[in-house]
Specification:
Strand content: under 5%
Number of helices: 6
CATH topology of the largest domain: Helicase, Ruva Protein, domain 3
CATH class of the largest domain: Mainly Alpha
Structural class: mainly alpha
Largest sheet: none
Helix content: 55-70%
Number of domains: 2
CATH superfamily of the largest domain: Cytochrome C biogenesis protein
Order of helices and strands: HHHHHH
Number of strands: 0
């Protein structure tokens, strides 16, 4: 029983992405390390692409983490570190793209799609509710309908009986 609990605990602990940062990468100053971790969480791993470099075990992510720590240790501000990494790897390295003319469509797409869907739904509902029901049935049509419905009901009663 204890072995199973220890094994389960090992699986849970091994799943933590924070363990991607190796002990040899950690800065001695806790304040600088906190800044490095915060910046690493904002940068995309170019190999994994859906993980931050803080979460990734890829070699390139490790290199980027070391680069971030090196720049912080040399006295760069957070903005300067981000600018340096972006100048080397492009805007794609940012997990949260900046708001600028090139990214307006990216930032505005959810609102545009929502408004488009709302307009389409409103037009659909309006068109459906505006349709005429049609002309009332003539006497012949009504008699035919009653004959069909009556024959169908009689057939069902015969099957039950």
């Amino acid at each position: 029983m204890i072995r199973r609990l220890l094994l389960a605990a090992a699986f849970v602990v091994s799943a933590f992405p924070a363990l991607a940062v190796n002990p040899d990468e950690v800065l001695p100053d806790p304040a600088l390390e906190a800044r490095a971790r915060a910046l690493s969480a904002e940068l995309r791993c170019m190999v994994c692409q859906n993980q931050s470099i803080d979460d990734s075990n890829a070699e390139l992510a490790r290199d980027l983490r070391l680069l971030v720590r090196e720049r912080i240790a040399s006295g760069d501000s957070d903005e300067a570190v981000i600018e340096y990494v972006v100048s080397r790897y492009g805007e794609f390295v940012l997990l949260k793209p900046r708001l600028k003319p090139e990214t307006l469509l990216l930032w505005g797409a959810p609102a545009i799609l929502f408004l488009g869907g709302a307009i389409a739904m409103a037009l659909f509902v309006r068109r459906r509710s505006g349709k005429a029901v049609g002309e009332p049935l003539s006497a012949e049509e009504r008699a035919e309908l009653e004959r069909i419905v009556g024959a169908d009901a009689a057939g069902k009663n015969d099957a039950r009986g």
